[in-house]
């Protein structure tokens, strides 16, 4: 982790009134003021004045903030690059084990060197328990109808995946972009609907869900598209009119709390089949809420790409499930490997990134071809100007003559993706820079947020307007008479700019925000090699957003640093799932 010392004594990031190791680490930029305050408060409440315990609480809080479910005390020192000294792990662990915070009405849980805050420990145990207590295999053998649903050559992977998901009550279905996950899901749903009909049962209640509104809208469209391709009209009729929604909606959001839902263990979801797409973006907490709300006999299909960036909130549940369940012999993971969508070399590049082979990644990038381009530079401004300005001018021109469809089509042609929001490699900087170039080129200043050809990204769901977080749009018309045209999943929507308040300019976007979307050409701007955001998962996610061309702008060092640095989210879930170690500890403690 790169950190910078906080020199100014009035810096708001400094925790006031604190001394000792916590203060030092806060000054060194290793701990945030919030980590320090929580640690002090919690230890004071428990009457524990051991500074080692306070330090452990602070790093546990910090771990959750950076996406981990727990902290490995033995690994803190090794993962820290700031030159700070840390306690000896054995001594540290013993101090924590002796704390009333662990032994009393536990606020902390220590398992080996894994230290958990209570809430996350409970959620991890619950997810493990709920998953492992779901019924195991039902029918053995190949389901009838496979050949009807997937009659064509080349669908072996989908056939195998659907066959597996028919026989298991819980299936994790993994695959990179365009590997036919949605196609497999459509086939599976057709098989389940047929089986219900043949058994004289009512049609299965199917819940399709995704973590974000945009992903849910895309899922609905993709599943409907694949259902429409099913060869047998009876299959198409059985699955007519499927809809998808966000996980929050499926579980029933409540106005009073964002952590609890209308559906839970005592008020289960009515569905017979629940399919979750983009599961890599689902946090541990959301997975806990989903699993407790499912009826035990409901079928669960978790679809996603475990190599992508994990959820914004704590957990790497999909990757943990693939890892943990993958080592059991009573659950099988359905894996799709062959991409049916993008250029062969983009697939090869994505695979080399996933495998951590930086040599191969650099070789592929330098070799280049019609799908791959490497602009090897530490001065990206000039090449980016050449790339971005003509596109921005094209959008402006289409927008000014009122050609909304053309403007929206241009928008899908290219995306500039950045790792950061702020700073010289950040989205904000490049959005401003493109606007400056536009002003220089046209001689017209940009004085308002809204201008002809302004590309924008919707940043909040608005069910009333039918636009979702992640939808893109363009301001079309003459200055002063602009309309915001949004490329919503069901078709373009034309709105007054005043109605779409939650938007960001989209000359550039973060890789995190790009998850779940694609563009014909993608340019990814890599930050300095020591940026802590620069990771294998980030580069993989960026590269797999491209349909036809991926262009990497940065230095060889940054490429290698990205490929070598893996996001290591500490969690005990994979280990628990593998070992089948559920809630015995939790109930004993309750
Ligand atoms: N076995 C196959 N052979 C040929 N084409 C296929 C096959 N499976 C799927 N396709 C087609 O490839 C495209 C991508 O498939 P699909 O949308 O199911 O993939 P996906 O994994 O869900 O993609 P993403 O995760 O990127 O949304 C679709 O047009 C689909 O019809």
From TrEMBL:
Residues 506-553 form the UvrD-like helicase C-terminal domain. It catalyses: ATP + H2O = ADP + phosphate + H(+). It comes from the Bacteria. Residues 28-116 form the RecBCD enzyme subunit RecD N-terminal domain. The keyword Chloroplast does not apply. ATP binds at residues 175-182. It is an enzyme of class 5 (isomerase). One of its GO terms (molecular function) is exodeoxyribonuclease V activity. This is RecBCD enzyme subunit RecD. It comes from Nocardioides aestuarii. The gene is recD.
């Amino acid at each position: 982790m790169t950190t910078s010392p906080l020199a100014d004594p009035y810096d708001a990031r400094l925790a006031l009134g604190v001394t000792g190791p916590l203060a030092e680490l806060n000054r060194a930029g290793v701990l945030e003021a919030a980590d320090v305050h929580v640690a002090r408060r919690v230890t004071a409440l428990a009457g524990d004045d051991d500074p080692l315990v306070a330090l452990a609480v602070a790093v546990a809080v910090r771990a959750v903030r950076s996406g981990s479910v727990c902290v490995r005390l033995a690994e803190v020192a090794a993962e820290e690059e700031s030159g700070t000294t840390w306690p000896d792990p054995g001594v540290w662990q013993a101090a924590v084990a002796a704390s009333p915070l662990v032994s009393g009405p536990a606020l902390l849980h220590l398992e080996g060197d894994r230290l958990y805050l209570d809430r996350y420990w409970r959620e991890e145990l619950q997810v493990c328990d709920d998953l492992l207590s779901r019924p195991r295999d039902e029918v053995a053998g190949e389901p009838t109808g496979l050949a009807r649903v997937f009659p064509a050559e080349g669908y072996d992977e989908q056939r195998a995946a659907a066959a597996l998901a028919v026989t298991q009550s819980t299936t994790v279905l993994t695959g990179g972009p365009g590997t036919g996950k949605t196609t497999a899901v459509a086939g599976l749903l057709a098989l389940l609907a047929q089986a219900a009909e043949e058994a004289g049962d009512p049609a299965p209640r199917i819940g399709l869900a995704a973590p974000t509104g945009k992903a849910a809208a895309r899922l609905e469209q993709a599943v409907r598209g694949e259902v429409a391709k099913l060869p047998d009209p009876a299959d198409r009729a059985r699955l007519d009119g499927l809809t998808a929604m966000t996980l929050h909606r499926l579980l029933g959001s409540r106005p009073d709390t964002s952590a609890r839902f209308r559906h839970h263990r005592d008020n289960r979801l009515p569905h017979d089949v629940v399919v979750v797409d983009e599961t890599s973006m689902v946090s541990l907490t959301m997975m806990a809420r989903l699993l407790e709300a499912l009826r035990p006999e409901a079928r669960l299909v978790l679809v996603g790409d475990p190599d992508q960036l994990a959820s914004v909130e704590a957990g790497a549940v999909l990757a943990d499930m693939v890892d943990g369940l993958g080592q059991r012999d009573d659950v099988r993971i359905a894996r799709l490997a062959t991409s049916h969508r993008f250029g062969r070399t983009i697939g090869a590049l994505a695979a080399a990134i996933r495998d951590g082979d930086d040599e191969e990644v650099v070789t592929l990038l330098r070799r280049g071809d019609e799908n791959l381009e490497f602009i090897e530079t530490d001065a990206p401004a000039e090449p980016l100007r050449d790339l971005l300005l003509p596109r921005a001018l094209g959008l402006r021109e289409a927008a000014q003559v009122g050609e909304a469809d053309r403007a929206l089509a241009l928008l899908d042609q290219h995306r500039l993706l950045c790792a950061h929001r702020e700073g010289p490699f950040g989205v904000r900087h490049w959005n401003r820079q493109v606007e400056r170039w536009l002003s220089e080129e046209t001689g017209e200043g940009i004085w308002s947020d809204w201008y002809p050809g302004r590309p924008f990204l919707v940043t909040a769901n608005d069910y009333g307007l039918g636009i979702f977080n992640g939808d893109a749009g363009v301001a079309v018309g003459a200055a002063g008479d602009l309309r915001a045209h949004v490329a919503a999943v069901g078709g373009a929507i034309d709105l007054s700019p005043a109605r779409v308040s939650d938007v960001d300019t989209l000359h550039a976007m973060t890789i995190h925000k790009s998850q779940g979307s694609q563009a014909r050409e993608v340019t990814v701007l890599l930050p300095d090699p020591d940026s802590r955001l620069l990771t294998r998962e980030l580069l993989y996610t960026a590269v797999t957003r491209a349909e036809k061309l991926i262009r990497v702008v940065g230095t060889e060092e940054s490429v290698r640093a990205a490929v070598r640095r893996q996001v290591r989210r500490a969690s005990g879930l994979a280990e628990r799932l593998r070992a089948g170690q559920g809630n015995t500890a939790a109930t004993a403690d309750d």
